Amino acid sequence: MNYTTLLTETKNGALHITLNRPESRNAMSFVMVQELMDVFSSVTTDRELRAIVLRGTGGTFCAGGDIKDLAKSRNEVVTEDCDPIVAHNREFGRMLQLVNKAPQAVIAVLEGAILGGGFGLACVSDIAIAKADCQFGLPETGLGLPPAQIAPFVVQRIGLTQARRLGVTGGRFDGDYAKSLGLVHEVAQSDDDIETLLASELKKVRRCAPGANAMTKQIMLDVYGDDIGPSLDYAATLFADAVRGKESPEGMAAFIEKRKPSWTES
Q: The domain spanning residue 64 has which CATH number?
């Protein structure tokens, strides 16, 4: 499998997927979303594959969505049948749904920045290993945007009370705090610790029957039902409204210009 934003390698029954846009700290472009959807779709029925490991190149998992792609989408033509911003945003949600329902055990190795879209991927993993000094965050509201497709998965992962607090503060926190929230399962102090913990978790997964693991995930996910799709559809329309509103242009300009947006109080 040849991709422009991903590196893939299969070894010992595990598919290792590395987000590979080091020039942008592995920011999630529209192309990366499509490539992740493609690779996860391709292994849906593969019961020889026991686990999927997600990580980022250059010591960073994912610094969020690609602001340049979002800015370009503002100039795309809205037709009677399609609002490009809604479509792009909802496609990201579909990717998260696909990863969430993967029959294999999905293990996220979280280093450096885990922001926005990267935070969303962490929330749909079965096993999450974080470096102690990594930085999680939901920076969207600081850019004048809602974490539209991510928020429902954050709520499912850590509960409504904690998710609400993080959502309205743009919360930033490290690996140890992420473990206290139940967002991650293991915290590594060093690069060697990460590899040791990853090998240990893969060994545990290989003890389990792949078909039984797939069924177990189906049963557990069914607790939440299949009603998240409409919520994500509605969230995509709110996201488009925000992108075309007054706050988003100021938020993105402030981000690019490395200054505080106008609504930030000193």
A: 3.90.226.10
DSSP state string for 157-210: HH-HHHHHHHHHHT-EE-HHHHHHHTS-SEEESSHHHHHHHHHHHHHHHHTS-H
Write out the residue range of the structural domain in which residue 42 sits. Answer: 6-217
Q: Is residue 155 part of a domain?
A: yes
Per the structure, the count of domains in the chain is: 1
**Phi and psi, residue 114, nearest 5°:** -130, 80
Q: Is 4 helix (H, G, I), strand (E, B) or coil?
A: coil
Provide the residue-wise pLDDT of the chain in tens; the chain has 266 residues.
689 999 999 999 999 999 999 999 999 999 999 999 999 999 999 989 999 999 999 999 999 999 888 878 888 888 888 999 999 999 999 999 999 999 999 999 999 999 999 999 999 999 999 999 999 999 999 999 999 999 999 999 999 999 999 999 988 999 999 999 999 999 999 999 999 999 999 999 999 999 999 999 999 999 877 678 899 999 999 999 999 999 998 998 888 898 999 998 75
Q: How far apart are CA 100 and CA 104, in angstroms?
A: 10
* Pair 170, 141: CB distance under 8 Å: yes
Distance CA 134, CA 261 (A): 25
